[in-house]
Amino acid sequence: MHTVLTQKAELPIERWLGFFVGRKEGMMAIKILIKRKIKNGNMRAASRLVINNRNGAMKQSGYISSESWRSLDDTDQVVVVSMWENIGAWETWKNSETRIANEAEFKDYIVGSTDFEHYSLGLSLD
User: Fold this and answer.
1) What's the half-sphere exposure (Cβ side, CA atoms, 13 Å) at 76?
2) Confidence class of residue 39 from pLDDT cuts 50, 70 and 90?
3) Burial class of residue 80 in the structure, from the number of CB atoms within 10 Å of its CB (0-12 exposed, 13-18 middle, 19+ buried)
4) pLDDT tens digits, one per residue of 53-76
5) Any idea what the Cα angle at residue 39 is, between residues 38 and 42, rounded to 5°?
6) What is the pLDDT of residue 126?
7) Quick count: other Cβ atoms within 10 Å of Cβ 66?
8) CA atoms of 45 and 78, how far apart (whole Å)
9) What is the DSSP-derived secondary structure letter of residue 37?
10) Which CATH number describes the domain made up of 28-119?
């Protein structure tokens, strides 16, 4: 039996509206893809760590939302898509003691290391 990660975390509408109304010209939200390959049989434990990490992120300035994906092609592959107001907000969270400690807990449950990909929303017409 496979556990499916379907939890999606979002901010209250008031914070969303504050982000979009208060947004300055040239500032663009970003998405971070956090990719992990989970060791066989460890999905339940890894799922708990993903949720704990998300709970910490939700308390951070600049956090907007996140969702977890599990690959249909490789059910041990998990991607967390995290949305932030800007890269600085993400970097502050990524480099925080809390997040570093949370990430260290994954070492027994993943194959290799966690990979991060950074994306801006939209395409520039430059």
Assistant:
1) 10
2) very high
3) buried
4) 999 999 999 999 999 999 999 999
5) 85
6) 65
7) 22
8) 13
9) E
10) 3.30.70.100
